[in-house]
Design a protein that fits this description.
By secondary structure, this protein is mainly beta. The chain has a single domain, classed as Sandwich (Immunoglobulin-like), CATH 2.60.40. About 10% of the residues lie in helices and about 35% in strands. The chain contains two helices and twelve strands, in the order H-E-E-E-E-E-E-E-H-E-E-E-E-E. Strand 1 and strand 2 form a beta hairpin. The longest helix has 12 residues.
Length: about 180
């Protein structure tokens, strides 16, 4: 009886490990007035869909904008062949690390790609700032964002904007 009690107590003491922390900020975009903005997050492993209750924050100086995710993503963060540790086996076309899209109401109104989560306009600071996902799981400090229609990637390369949501819908927006 003692061993059964010990096993039950040990099982109860093991915390639930909802996985959310292996996402990284992949692409960031803003127009000049901050009404059309998006953050594209990209998965680095499977099982990362449990983001409910976690936050994304955008800050500059003493000002911080915070959004708390109201729900989890609707499925696994990866499609394709995975090893038992949640990483792709490799090889061309075997695994797709999914993205999800956080965008402003102004972006959503364009009806180009449906955002997975909608934040208020001017959520990002186009003049430079810090984006903090998942209470420090990923932090990206960026210089001034391009306001000419291009986006900034994680390595600060400027590219044609290409927002992609969790369902895999991809689009492009024009600032003209």
């Amino acid at each position: 009886m003692r061993s059964i009690t010990a096993i039950l107590l040990a099982a109860i003491a093991i915390p639930a490990n909802a996985t959310f922390h292996l996402w990284y900020i992949n692409e960031v975009h803003s127009n000049a007035d901050g009404t059309v903005q998006f953050i594209e997050m990209k998965a680095a492993a499977s099982g990362q869909q449990f983001i409910r209750g976690h936050t994304v924050r955008s800050s500059q100086g003493g000002t911080t904008n915070t959004y708390t995710f109201p729900n989890d993503l609707p499925g696994d963060s990866v499609e394709g062949m995975m090893n038992p540790y949640g990483y792709g086996y490799g090889g061309e076309g075997e695994v797709i690390y999914k993205t999800f899209l956080i965008a402003t109401q102004g972006f959503a109104a364009l009806n180009v790609v449906t955002p997975d989560f909608v934040v208020p306009n001017n959520f990002l600071f186009p003049g430079g700032g810090t984006i903090n996902f998942g209470e420090g799981a990923d932090v990206f400090t960026h210089p001034a964002l391009p306001t000419d229609g291009r986006s900034m990637t994680r390595d600060r390369t400027l590219i044609a904007n290409s927002p992609m949501n969790f369902a895999g819908a991809i689009g492009s927006i024009s600032t003209t």
